[in-house]
Specification:
The complex is a heterodimer.
Chain A (H helix, E strand, L loop, with lengths): L5 E5 L4 H12 L3 E5 L3 H13 L6 E3 L6 H15 L4 E4 L14 H29 L2 E6 L2 H5 L5 H21 L4 E8 L5 H4 L3 H9 L9 H12 L10 E4 L6
Parallel strand pairs in A: 1-2, 1-4, 2-3, 4-5, 5-6, 6-7
Chain B lengths: L2 H13 L20 H15 L5 H6 L3 H10 L7
The chains are: A alpha/beta, B mainly alpha.
């Protein structure tokens, strides 16, 4: 589904980002993988080589630094001369009651979840516009759609992702660039593994399909949105949550 | 073709102007042909012509032909006559 395409994925070393990287590579894409944890990223690269997929490009830069983002896009552009899809996956979640959130936490959450995403959309859309084609996929959250106690800042940042997605979809449609978001529900990641068992059970009970989602569930949605099979789909927020109720 | 001629030609082609009208005082948003949409197309054309990727701050800052020369100089393009 992605033969010949170049797909850029932030936060690609673990969890959902790793699954997206592997799924895109399995479909034939050349992946550009961004993460600070290079050891984990090397593991992802090894797994991709095992799929006999195109050799990935591995990058380590501060995604919240606009200059560093620009330099990364310049480097990759010189090498690939095309960008077909961007998956803005990198994100952080720091749960806290509203009255106990520090200004630094708010700044950090928005820097990673929103500002970095916007910087990447800026550069990616410029490269995609040259070929009048491309797909930007932003990872939001069910919390950004419906909110949750203890997650006001995280929810605000993920709601901002939805606003950015819907506005950019309208602005970039005339240039053939599609912009969509995926809103995962309760997904088996490292963050979830740290949950106390009573909290885990409580959240699982809120999923009508009766099982926790896997990173691969999200990855398959991302592959669809990156591929030409979704060529008339833009401005959508795709919930991948097993009918979770929050 | 010198870098300066290439820059003039790229401006002229992108903005739909005769080369003779491309001078240092040609300024963004003062002619109908150079609006924000045309600006993004111009940036892409300059990047292709000079094989660079222009930083976002420079995209915003490129408010005239003279400014374009100054900015591209930062990217290693020489405009000596």
């Amino acid at each position: 589904m992605l033969d010949g395409k170049v797909v850029w994925i932030t936060g690609a070393s673990r969890g959902i980002g790793r699954a997206i990287a592997l799924a895109c590579a399995a479909e034939g894409a050349r992946t550009v993988l961004v993460a600070r944890e290079q050891a984990h990223l090397q593991d992802v690269a090894e797994a991709i080589r095992g799929l006999h997929a195109p050799e990935p490009i591995l990058l380590d830069y501060d995604i919240t630094d606009l200059r560093a983002v620009g330099a990364a896009f310049s480097q990759v552009h010189k090498e690939t001369r095309r960008l077909d899809a961007l998956v803005n996956n990198a994100g952080i979640m720091q749960d806290a009651l509203l009255g106990m959130v520090s200004a630094d936490q708010i700044q950090q959450t928005f820097s990673v979840n929103v500002f970095a995403l916007l910087y990447h959309m800026q550069y990616a859309s410029r490269l995609m516009a040259r070929r009048q084609a491309g797909s930007i996929i932003n990872i939001s959250s069910i919390i950004g759609r419906f909110g949750n106690s203890g997650q006001t800042v995280y929810g605000a940042s993920k709601a901002a992702v939805i606003g950015a997605t819907q506005s950019a979809a309208k602005e970039l449609a005339p240039q053939g660039i599609r912009v969509n978001a995926i809103a995962p529900g309760f997904i088996q990641t490292d963050m979830v593994r740290q949950l106390a068992s009573d909290k885990f059970d409580e959240r699982l009970a809120s999923v009508r399909m009766g099982r926790i989602g896997t990173p691969e569930d999200i990855a398959q949605a991302a592959v669809f949105l990156a591929s030409d099979r979704s060529s008339y789909v833009t401005g959508q927020i795709l919930g991948v949550d097993g009918a979770m109720v929050v | 073709m010198s870098s300066l001629d290439k820059l003039r030609a790229t401006f002229a082609e992108s903005l739909g102007l005769p080369v003779s009208e491309v001078s240092d005082d040609l300024t963004y948003n003062t002619i109908a042909q150079w609006d924000s949409v045309a600006h993004m197309a111009l940036i892409a054309a300059l990047e292709d012509a000079f094989d660079v990727l222009i930083e976002t701050e420079d995209v915003i800052d490129m408010s005239s032909f003279a400014k374009a020369k100054a900015i591209l100089t930062k990217y290693g393009i020489g405009f000596d006559a």
